[in-house]
């Protein structure tokens, strides 16, 4: 929702545009309107206008400083953003190229957790969970052995939020992944490939100046959600 002063009347817009400003909060508008509407004469009017101008400048400065501080809250520093995105790219490339070592090295072994809701959001009884990095390595190896072509599409840019200490980040993106079996082979039911889609929630941790994934929560879509998402 826009703040109440973000869509002012055309008259107000004209008032502050004449002063060379793009947008200003209510107190700023009040002072500018006073300067435009009150036409005093003599020394009193000059002093009054001078006081209003000084007050207006102070309020504008306070407002700009305050806004600058507010914008910094929750922002991810560019260098951290770059490193996190590089890890995501290595994660994708490692899986697509079926390089199990490159893929596994995007995770921290200590504290690793993988959870998939298996497309049944709200039903924990069928969740798939790994809390040992060796389980993830074995699962990835089985996938790589069965499928010769794997393609992953990730939404960009990811949504990233970081804690105050700057050593833990939540990273969200949307994924589509498909894999194809070798020529002449087929899956159960005669299918030659598989497709999955959903939302990722990665928990990144920074250890010894290096970012890696600690937790991966796979919020998979079910068949109905996939059809809706792709207008099928």
Query: How many extended strands?
Result: 7
Low-confidence runs of at least 5 consecutive residues: 1-44, 64-71
What is the gyration radius calculated from CA atoms? 28 Å
Mean pLDDT: 78
**Overall domain count:** 2
Cα distance spanning the termini: 33 Å
Shape: globular
Tell me the β content: 15-25%
Helix count equals: 7
Assigned CATH class of the largest domain: Alpha Beta
What's this model, at a glance?
The chain has 232 residues and is α+β, with helices and mostly antiparallel strands. It has helices spanning 10-17, 26-37, 42-72, 78-96, 100-104, 133-146, 223-229; strands at 113-116, 128-130, 149-154, 159-162, 168-180, 193-207, 210-220.
């Amino acid at each position: 929702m826009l703040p109440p002063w973000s869509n002012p009347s055309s008259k107000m817009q004209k008032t502050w545009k004449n002063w060379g400003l793009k947008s200003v909060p209510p107190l700023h508008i009040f002072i500018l309107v006073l300067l435009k509407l009150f036409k005093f004469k003599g020394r009193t009017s000059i002093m009054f206008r001078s006081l209003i101008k000084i007050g207006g400048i102070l309020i504008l400065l306070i407002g700009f400083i305050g806004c600058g501080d507010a914008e910094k809250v929750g922002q991810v520093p560019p260098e951290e953003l770059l490193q996190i995105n590089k890890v995501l790219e290595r994660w994708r490339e490692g899986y697509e190229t079926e390089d199990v070592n490159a893929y596994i090295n995007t995770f921290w072994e200590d504290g690793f957790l993988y959870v998939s809701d298996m497309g049944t959001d709200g039903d924990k009884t069928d969740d798939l969970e790994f809390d040992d990095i060796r389980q993830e390595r074995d699962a990835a190896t089985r996938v790589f052995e069965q499928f010769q072509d794997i393609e992953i599409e990730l939404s960009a840019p990811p949504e990233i939020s970081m804690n105050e200490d700057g050593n833990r980040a939540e990273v969200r993106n949307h994924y589509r992944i498909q894999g194809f079996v070798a020529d002449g082979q087929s899956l159960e039911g005669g299918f030659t490939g598989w497709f999955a889609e959903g939302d990722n929630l990665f928990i990144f941790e920074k250890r010894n100046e290096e970012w890696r994934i600690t937790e991966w929560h796979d919020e998979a879509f079910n068949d109905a959600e996939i059809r809706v998402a792709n207008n099928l």
